[in-house]
Amino acid sequence: MMWVRALVAVVAVSLALGSAVAHEGGTTGYATVSVAGQSVRYALSVPAEGLGDAARDLREFAAAVARHVAIDADGAACSGVPAETRPPSAGRASIEVVVLYACAAPIRNLSIRDGIDAVLGADHHTIADIQWSGGARQVLFEKGQRVASVAITGNAAPDRAAPSQFVFYLGLGVEHIIGGIDHLLFLLALLALSRGVWPTVKIVTAFTVAHSITLSLAALGLVHMPARIVEPLIAASIVWVAVENLVAPGGVGRRWLIAAAFGLVHGLGFASALIELDLSRETLVRALIGFNVGVELGQLAFVAVVMPPLAWASRPGRLPRLPQILSAAVAVVGAVWLVKRLLAA
């Protein structure tokens, strides 16, 4: 049958893609850049598991950060010296490096070039929180955008930074869900058999409420679960729902319960993007709200794109087997991730 051949083809392609996608996305670093007078303190936190060979010699890694992060003040280069390194500990899975930069004069216009991709790969990106007396700005350094310029002024009231921070973390939340293909595949599997507006609303609402709870608790430090446990569980949730679509499609009526249960796990995964920032409580609350809103907006955008084609395909005489084909492909990709994450744990 034609749909069987299509199923085999999609699963074969998914097996290849699953192996490739599992390695995409690169590492994410979180930097706090503090500007005061003629000096700049650059504190970088990077997950140890993403450093590879660079983690073997922390002194060399700190020196590499000082070499590849260039800071200019009003057009003149500032000299950087590694000041401190902190290896991973029981409660922190990241490596922290502090570099101090000395500039020739009080800083009015700051320029930062993040060249750490030369050490950690082209897909590395750094989320930087630039702070100075009277102001703040958040910047994302990524492929194609490695330089940022900031006017350092002492006249801005601190609360004026709040709206820009909220928008920044909102955008970070949107990027996290849209770029988090494992979360999107889980949503796709959840919605593959959904028919009608109300079942879809129940599933999306249950998933949203559940992951918002654990996202908030984890980001506030009230709940902690290591990534080596969370990441395999996320992959396992994808496999579970996709396989259930194939072997027990009649269970779609209780799908909102499955969405809620596994949503708690996915919330812990979402929280990892905020935990490493080491924000103050006031800033963390603002970041948490903006990030969570961004995640929901990205999620709703994905649902809005996915559901119309699924609804169209479910009509008689069109592509009634599409949910099964998609579910099989998702199950294969999820299984590849599960094995890889278990082996890496």
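[next item in queue]
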Amino acid sequence: MHETHLASGKVRELYALDDDRLLLVASDRISTFDVVLPTEIPDKGRVLTGLSGFWFTLLHAIVPNHMLGLRGDGRTMECRRLEMLPIECVGRGYLAGSGWKDYQATGMTSGHRLPEGLRESDKLPEPIFTPATKAQTGHDENISRDEAAELVGAERLGEVERIAIALYAAAADHALTRGIIIADTKFELGLDADGNLVLGDEALTPDSSRFWPADSYEPGRTQDSFDKQFVRDFCEQTGWDKTDPGPELPEDVVMHTRSKYIEAFERLTTIPFPAYRENPSVVLG
């Protein structure tokens, strides 16, 4: 079968199989501050692909997704082609990251007026939808619902918001039973040939979400995490100016980060990671 390389992302390679199908290959690359670092994290791509496959299967009743199957390498997903919406769809249940920064400055985030007196990492009264632009370079920028409606249409945005919040809430409930708080997560939605919304890209991975261990959760500070925070902290300490090229990662940082990714995978799926490496379809139920 002939595969045509279409694009390289920070972490993924995208190939066309034919007019209807794509291959999404997750590498072990890691980026921080929008720079791909020279050191890879072994098995990181398999964690991203396996977790996405798990969540696509678990959440399929809420919205269809683009997954057609997983290949034997554990890092390649066969997918349906979609016409992707020009916005990021972020579900937030806790006040962190850019949402916290917006709140400190304005008492709001993406047009949502939030209660006064919230602390960093506080749980929000209910999950909210905060759209963002898709930046080709640099950071995605939070935008208001009105700005998002100009990009996709008001009626479509209402559907997107309902789906994003339902996906976030269902995933957060599941994760909490496994000892993980999902503070926020980013979804990408697209349209199929009939104009129906379909979940694409990856879903609910440590790269697209903030995962916090529930047993050490304490509002009023930055939380421990299962994502790239350990790598970010190391990079901050090196004096690096956050432009390409990034610093090499020492072995202890690489192995600690790998263990965090794998721990998140095993907690959320209850599947031992070696079992996934041996047979990736085990995450599909």
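[queue empty]
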